[in-house]
Design a protein that fits this description.
This protein is mainly alpha-helical and 139 residues long. The chain has a single domain (3-134), classed as Four Helix Bundle (Hemerythrin (Met), subunit A), CATH 1.20.120.330. It is built from four helices and no strands. It has helices at 3-29, 37-59, 70-77, 111-134. Helix 1 runs antiparallel to helix 4 and helix 2 (37-59) packs parallel to helix 4 (111-134). It starts with a helix and ends in a 5-residue tail after the last helix.
């Protein structure tokens, strides 16, 4: 393996690590007894999905746009991945990327929506990790 491949593999592992940290934080957030925590849970679930998809693109050496738009990232991944169709519900997480982080949007996230966001993020992370392992990355 070349030095460049080693660097890329390390970067991919870092992206996955960050994605998993966001997922853990989202899961932990469900235990916080405050209704407003659900928006933070959904935000971190979105971040997990986004970073997972970007990890795949880094591995594939594909430049990706500076975006939080999950559908856009799925479309770029779809150029080399056959698993994108099973992640289409992840596009719904895009709403949580930035609109929930700032006041004035008046968007509420229910407990059910927060749980669903976590489930979607878990699925995205698993599918991407499985794809990376299948391509030979040691995670």
């Amino acid at each position: 393996m070349s030095k460049i491949d080693d660097i890329i593999n390390q970067q991919v592992k870092e992206w996955i690590s960050f994605a998993e940290s966001d997922l853990k934080f989202a899961q932990y957030g469900l235990d916080v007894e405050a209704e407003k925590a659900y928006r933070i849970v959904a935000y971190h679930a979105q971040q997990c999905a986004e970073k997972s998809l970007k990890a795949y693109l880094v591995y594939q050496k594909i430049d990706f746009p500076y975006t939080h738009n999950i559908l856009q990232l799925l479309n770029v991944c779809g150029e080399t991945a056959d698993w994108v169709s099973e992640l289409q519900d992840a596009k719904n997480l895009t709403l949580y990327a930035s609109t929930l982080r700032y006041p004035g949007q008046n968007i509420k996230v229910t407990e059910k929506e927060a749980i669903q966001a976590i489930e979607i993020a878990e699925h995205v992370c698993k599918v991407v990790k499985d794809a990376l392992i299948a391509k030979g990355l040691n995670l």
